[in-house]
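Box S2. Input/output pair 1.
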Amino acid sequence: MRYLLTALALTAPFFVAQASVAESLDAGQREILSAEAGAMAIYEDARLEIAKAKASGAPRLHLSTLKWPKFKNLLVIPHEISTLENLQVLYLTGTGVSDLAPLAGLTQLKGLYLTKTQVSDLAPLANLTQLDTLWLTETQVSDLTPLANLTQLEMLSLTKTQVSDLAPLANLTQLTMLDLTEIPASDFSTLEPLVQSGLMVIK
């Protein structure tokens, strides 16, 4: 059920928001004002987890497990994640996120797990050249062009995506595992040199 929110759900009890409060919210908070009850609470929980990771210097961050009663999961990646310059592994599996823009500057990221998210645009990942593991299983991704220069990629899952053109993967010579289960692509000739070099392709 959708609600016209007159209150914001935080990790603490609900409070009544003044009409002018929207002007003081960050972009992520404004985006979820009209979402299901609990969206703001999960967003604030995500910000808290990011703050903890920032303080501890932890190289891994799990945002996949954030839940709220009667609500699914995180919808928007808090912009604060951009401050985790040394983050190496990020789990967003099963969240409702679609916009990866906050990740664009995380150049030390090595593992990114986006299975069962609403992601379709990979452009923000184009400069994450340290990525060696990328899971895009059951997303809306169709264009792999932003991955063309991610030459450190070793493991890539495209299971149940909308990918039909595999040409952008031609120069990813470090790939050792590529999962293409249930994708619309029919021309796999681009991958032949990689297979000859040891790439394992799962179809």
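Box S3. Input/output pair 2.
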Amino acid sequence: MRQTSKEFDLHLDNYAPRGTWSDGTTLWVADSDDYKLYAYNLSDGMRQTTKEFDLHADNANPEGTWSDGTTLWVADWEDDKLYAYPLPK
């Protein structure tokens, strides 16, 4: 069943979401139009700009994300590569 009370709108600049991952507190959303990972607080949907970061220029087509809690991997569909980034705290 859908949990509408947990839903929230993405920031206007985050209009091409292509992958998400969460540590249970923060939700990271990869965006394919501005090559960035946006961060949101899961409890209220507010952006956490201090945890956001730009993707490497070669990682221009993000399609999915996953993390082990230390490293955040972002898959790129065009060059068939996984890019690794330190997970912001």
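Caption for Box S3: The radius of gyration is 13 Å. The chain is about 0% helix and 45% strand.
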